[in-house]
Design brief:
Layout lengths: L4 H13 L2 H8 L3 H15 L4 E2 L6 E2 L1 H28 L4 E7 L1 H18 L3 E7 L5 H6 L5 E4 L8 E16 L20 E3 L6 H13 L6 E3 L10 H4 L5 E4 L10 E5 L5 E9 L5 H21 L4
Parallel strand pairs: 3-4, 3-5, 7-8
Antiparallel strand pairs: 1-2, 5-11, 6-9, 6-10, 6-11
Length: 305
């Protein structure tokens, strides 16, 4: 059997219009060309696709059965062509994306997986930065896009919340409250909070302090390295401090530490930031994908989802 994609395309057009003349107009060819291609296809297949015995043609039973697979084939060919055009015209692109530790733990891997499937012509270089460093990477031109929390940046950039997730309490598994279903922050007055310096990200730091205050806690802060889940996390495991972490970081907690929800749930936003005047197709497509993935991940992270 030797049929061509052109013949299949002609078949799907005639099958939809049920008229050789209208099909020819849509395909920008003459009516005899359409008739010839359909006839060739029928000879290759060994049966008729259209009943021409009446004034208006109609699909035969075989033609009706092949219509669906033919549409799938032409759709797949169009999809292939669209991606091929991107490569052939130099559209293949590389973008650098920076992310803070919790973004690198969970959300950026989702983006890389999604982009590999839906934007295969795009190469993403993912770079981890410490808390508070997303803005500096973007402003310096070291990155095209960034993911972080409470990013303060100039109006040359767009910032949009794409993912929200619950805030969790990181606590020693030996702490008396470790087996609780949830934590009231006021019950942790005997423990200091392990947290990075306020200078790292003032807005983020102040938001965590506001959450503590709303929970009846004015914590003593033990200054940590930029990552709470890092070299000083042993203070939490030993029961000498507690931490506040996004739910996506719970799986990264070292041995001896558990993550528990707050009795009064709070969410942490994760923002996508990119240059406002960047009109490159690669950026537009990646932003659209991140919005879609963020909406799904936000729903999945909420209790009861």
């Amino acid at each position: 059997m030797s049929l061509t994609l052109r013949q299949v395309q002609f078949f799907t057009t005639v099958a939809r219009t049920l008229h050789f003349g209208r099909a020819a107009e849509e395909l920008f060819v003459s009516q005899p060309v359409v008739s010839q291609e359909i006839a060739r296809l029928e000879r290759v297949l060994g049966f008729e696709l259209f009943d021409r015995s009446k004034r208006q043609i109609s699909l035969t039973a075989a033609g009706e059965a092949l219509r669906g697979p033919a549409l799938e084939l032409t759709d797949a060919a169009l999809h292939f062509e669209q991606f091929a055009v991107r490569f052939s015209k130099g559209r293949a692109a590389t973008l650098t994306m920076v992310g803070t530790p919790s973004a690198m733990d969970y959300f950026i891997p989702l983006i890389l997986q999604g982009a590999e499937a839906s934007i295969p012509w795009l190469q993403i270089e993912d770079v981890g930065v410490e808390t508070g460093e997303v803005a500096a990477s973007l402003e310096s031109g070291a990155a095209d896009l960034g993911l972080g929390r409470y990013v303060s940046i100039s109006d040359r950039f767009r910032s949009e919340i794409v993912f929200r997730e619950p805030l969790m309490v990181a606590l020693s598994e030996s702490h008396p409250l470790a087996g609780s279903g949830s934590i009231h922050l006021g019950d942790l007055a005997d423990l200091p909070l392990l947290l990075w310096p306020r200078e790292r990200n003032r807005a983020y730091y102040d938001r965590l302090m506001d959450i503590c205050s709303a929970g009846g806690l004015d914590p003593l802060v033990v200054v940590s390295r930029p990552r709470v889940i890092g070299t000083r996390s042993y203070l939490i495991a030993d029961g000498r401090a507690f931490g506040l972490v996004p739910a996506s970081s719970a799986a990264q907690l070292p041995a001896g530490i558990v993550a528990l929800p707050l009795d009064a749930p709070e969410e942490l936003p994760l923002s996508l930031v990119w240059r406002a005047d960047d009109q490159r197709p690669a950026v537009s497509e990646l932003v659209a994908l991140i919005r879609q993935l963020g909406a799904s991940a936000s729903r999945a992270s909420r209790p009861g989802s």
